[in-house]
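Regression test case RT-17, inverse folding.

Input:
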């Protein structure tokens, strides 16, 4: 089908308008990185009825710091909730900026169904670093892990500011409401130094 002159002109204007914005976003992404400062985890499952063992932490390298988490379940986990909260702390008297505060169905998240775009993107990124199943249940007596995770800001919408970031996420039993594992990540978005950029 041949485009009418007016239609072609319209799409050319749109393209020329979007191109500079796309270039600016790409440059903004390349100028910043997410540096992990600390990562810890805990469990409310005191009786170990769900969670058998777990460990987490960050790598020793200060230049390319990554974080990891491993856990083994005592029993299979099918229906569960996943909670995540992302906060950008601000100086007082300004309140902290809550970027995301969501509780969603854990099985749908594993399958990457019916999720808000940011959650879908997060699940896609996590597949590179974890052996989490793509559907429920989580199996017992099997080591699930997230290893060597380091977020590449080129994979997310453009970032153009330096800011601390606090992330809390947990897997939660639907019936009992027990958070059988919770992770706490302290990080910061910072401008890439000229030394790193030249490498």
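Golden output:
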């Amino acid at each position: 089908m041949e485009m009418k002159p007016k239609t072609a002109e319209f799409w050319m204007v749109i393209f020329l308008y979007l191109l500079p914005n796309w270039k600016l976003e790409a440059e903004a992404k390349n100028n910043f990185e997410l540096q992990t400062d600390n990562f810890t985890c805990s469990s409310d499952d005191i009786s170990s009825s769900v969670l058998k063992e777990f460990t987490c932490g960050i790598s020793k390298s200060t230049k390319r710091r990554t974080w990891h988490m491993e856990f083994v379940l005592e029993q299979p986990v099918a229906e569960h909730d996943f909670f995540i909260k992302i906060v950008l702390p601000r100086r007082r008297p300004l309140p902290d900026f809550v970027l995301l505060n969501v509780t969603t169905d854990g099985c749908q998240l594993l399958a990457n169904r019916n999720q808000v775009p940011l959650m879908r993107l997060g699940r896609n990124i996590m597949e590179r670093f974890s052996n989490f199943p793509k559907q429920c249940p989580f199996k017992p007596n099997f080591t699930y892990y997230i290893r060597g995770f380091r977020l590449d800001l080129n994979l997310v919408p453009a970032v153009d500011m330096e800011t601390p970031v606090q992330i809390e996420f947990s897997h939660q039993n639907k019936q009992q409401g027990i958070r059988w594992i919770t992770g706490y990540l302290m990080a910061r978005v910072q401008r890439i130094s000229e030394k790193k950029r030249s490498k």
